[in-house]
Amino acid sequence: MSNYDQLTAHYQTISHFNHAQSMLGWDAAANMPAGGNDARSKAMAELSVHVHRLSTQPQLGEWFDKAQQELLSTEQQSSLREMKRQWQQATIVPEDLVQAQSIAGSKCEHAWRSQRPANDWEGFEKNWKEVVKLSREEAKIRSEALGSTPYDAMLDKFEPGTTTASLDTLFSDVKTWLPELIEKALDKQNSQSIIMPSGTFSTANQKALGVETMKLLKFDFDHGRLDQSVHPFCGGVPSDVRITTRYDEKDFVQALMGIVHETGHARYEQGLPKAFAGLPVGEARSMGVHESQSLFFEMQIGRSKPFISHLSQLSANAFNAHQDPVFAEENLYKIYTQVEKGFIRVDADELTYPAHVIMRYEIERDLINGVIEHTDVPALWDEKMKASLGLSTKGNYQNGCMQDIHWTDGAFGYFPSYTLGAMYAAQYKATMQQTVDIDGAIKSGDLSPIFKWLSDNIWSQASLHTTDDLIKRATGETLNAAHFRKHLETRYL
Amino acid sequence: MSNYDQLTAHYQTISHFNHAQSMLGWDAAANMPAGGNDARSKAMAELSVHVHRLSTQPQLGEWFDKAQQELLSTEQQSSLREMKRQWQQATIVPEDLVQAQSIAGSKCEHAWRSQRPANDWEGFEKNWKEVVKLSREEAKIRSEALGSTPYDAMLDKFEPGTTTASLDTLFSDVKTWLPELIEKALDKQNSQSIIMPSGTFSTANQKALGVETMKLLKFDFDHGRLDQSVHPFCGGVPSDVRITTRYDEKDFVQALMGIVHETGHARYEQGLPKAFAGLPVGEARSMGVHESQSLFFEMQIGRSKPFISHLSQLSANAFNAHQDPVFAEENLYKIYTQVEKGFIRVDADELTYPAHVIMRYEIERDLINGVIEHTDVPALWDEKMKASLGLSTKGNYQNGCMQDIHWTDGAFGYFPSYTLGAMYAAQYKATMQQTVDIDGAIKSGDLSPIFKWLSDNIWSQASLHTTDDLIKRATGETLNAAHFRKHLETRYL
Ligand SMILES: [Zn+2]
Ligand SMILES: [Zn+2]
């Protein structure tokens, strides 16, 4: 067996344990009764340890060295590159640091669950200090290995190839036009009247509506399911993708669009190439590219007028309320494109969302690079919220810098993915519409030309190319914020 | 760390992978879309290989030898005995034989799924021949290691300590009185009129009824769930027991009693001692003892008059049919104690069931011991069915020797467990009623005195004692078929 084949077999073995891990995680969120938590956590921890052991097995280094001398096809070279990338990610940080981070992160996150509602910054700060310190150690080790700045090394975990330099350029561009665009959109919407949903929307009816919507989006129910969990997510494995949502019986709007979003994640997974199943090269390219699929579904398809026309029909059917003006196309469109300045990122609309991300990026970048200290964060948060959305968070930690889970366990470098995803999605649309009648396809109810473009250009490409190459091959250029701006201006002005 | 402690840690590690395996198996039956099967099978096979590797790790032999010299408490000695037993079970059969059996068994079972409906004995025989041959090889190897007959060695897998000698005694006793008892019961029932359920019983209502019944039986929903699958079973792990059932919208009777049965299995699992969680000594004693719990719930509680009075109430509520005579106590009792001679074991009633088991026992015993050949089975089946239930299966293989899945993949030695379980259950009842007002407890709707007895005597004892000791400690004697006879006579005469 060649060293390349040996590596391939090894990573497929790892994927089988990851399959178990992924399904146990989904089950814990979607099915497991509370009393099952203790044994489940132990089982999942054991699987993690085992996967880590397999991922850092001593002979891998030699196999990689030798495989690089073997005659490989272009695809095999990509496969080798991605296996090696995962191996480096697994081995780069010493195990005692990983363990210390896991303990500090769990402690901080656990306490945060009660500290946030209590607005207890002082309590939080005591735990978070350690998380930040350990993340900086991690960033230092990674940056030395990669020859990059500490924050770039953290970005590399989620968005390989993306750098502070490129993000600074992209985001500073956005900052030049976003605030004014938000103001104009708000002005325009001031004169609008919206009828908000009220009354009871049963979980059963909402679920049926979700399933109909997923069918319109060609979710493959032979390779996946829709279930419920407190925090919606897309889990499972490519051949069996488990998406979840949360229903609010007082309002169907959020859950419905949440399902559209998760369906975007799911179709990416379902569309990954079978030929590379179980191998790193067969996985989704990055967090940002993943989000580009969910946001293409949510923002480019889901909130478009022709799609909302379908949602109007489907939801009026589901709730048997054809005369109710809530479900009128125009009204639903207003609901789904309403702009509002708010404190909370996860509640933010499409237009204000980037502002939330960019300020987090600026703060975590400087925090990891040692330019600021963790105790500076609340004041910076207040300052940046005032500058971008005109809201003060002074003393309001729970709706300020304590609102997200990401930083509690050290996921620094993740936030940019959200806005990168929205930008990629707008750029795909700009290219796609040169060859595909997007609105026409949505109107007709047969969206396959859209999905064919996504499949050809993104899904089937998995991790065969770097992100930059992937985007260039798909759209003829690397990421260009102009498309995002144009999309937002078209929709909101 | 002592060798005993090392072994304990090792078996706990194994239990974490078994946790994953168990949950993936449940998910495959209860949730997984068909398209997920391929990746799931690979993941489960990988976990099996890994568990087998851990279970046969070379240093275990030395640890066991040394641990036996260490100062251990009585409970630790039991724990060591059960770890060693699992180790021996895992190592006794050479891996190439295990693999050959797995391949032959899968092939035979897969083909059987279409051969059975086609009544294709000739096709089946060709595959089954190999399964029997390999099972005989396994039995030979096991018997040499244990110093027993080949069939006793197979029994030992499912019912450690149970021998052909004891089963011959028990079953030949049953054969002296069962046929006449069946005839008398049939005579008595001839004059009865039963109103059978008809109409639609929605899955949702049946599930709600099942949940109410499980609550009456004190199933702990904080440590388990009820779901649906084609073949009902009890899966999961002790802290999170997953039971399943199958609903027929034309009839609620079977699913309801099926839930009672699985709840018995579930409460045994839920009641296993936390102190030994993850260790072999903390597991259920044997298949027969497991079945003694499900059958205690189904036969001793579930089909008793006071319990059926509850079911009458609960089902009339669930289907909102208080006037319907189907749900009248008397009528439900008749339904649940109806005796009928039939071809199919899984459809058999409490009274004819042992006849089905005993003839399978006699055939598989002689087959494994080399007294008969696999080609003799159809004729023997016909002969024994005629003798015990007066039914001929000549040429009717699909409702004869091809009806069960057990033999298709070589699970010889399993069948006796069903009737052992029924006998144990009757014996518990005989002892329990000396100190517990069983009918009174059921009538009152608070069954805890019954569950306390089961918990004290069976659940909390897990595998601390041998089966014989467990039964003796619980009832003052080893298994005695007289209690079973008495129970049946009381109910059916
Ligand atoms: Zn997303
Ligand atoms: Zn059972």
Automatic annotation (TrEMBL), chains A, B:
Q: Which CDD domains match?
A: M32_Taq
Q: Which InterPro entries match?
A: Peptidase_M32_Taq
The first-level EC class reads hydrolase
Q: PROSITE patterns of this UniProt entry? A: PEPTIDASE_M32
Q: Its Enzyme Commission number?
A: 3.4.17.19
- GO MF term set: carboxypeptidase activity
What's the catalysed reaction? Release of a C-terminal amino acid with broad specificity, except for -Pro
Question: What's in the keyword line of the UniProt record?
Answer: Carboxypeptidase, Hydrolase, Metal-binding, Metalloprotease, Protease
Record keyword Isomerase present: no
Report whether Protease shows up as a keyword of the record: yes
Relate the protein's function as given in its record: Broad specificity carboxypetidase that releases amino acids sequentially from the C-terminus, including neutral, aromatic, polar and basic residues.
**Into which family does the record put it?**
Belongs to the peptidase M32 family.
Protein name (database record): Metal-dependent carboxypeptidase
- Which organism was this protein described from? Psychromonas aquatilis
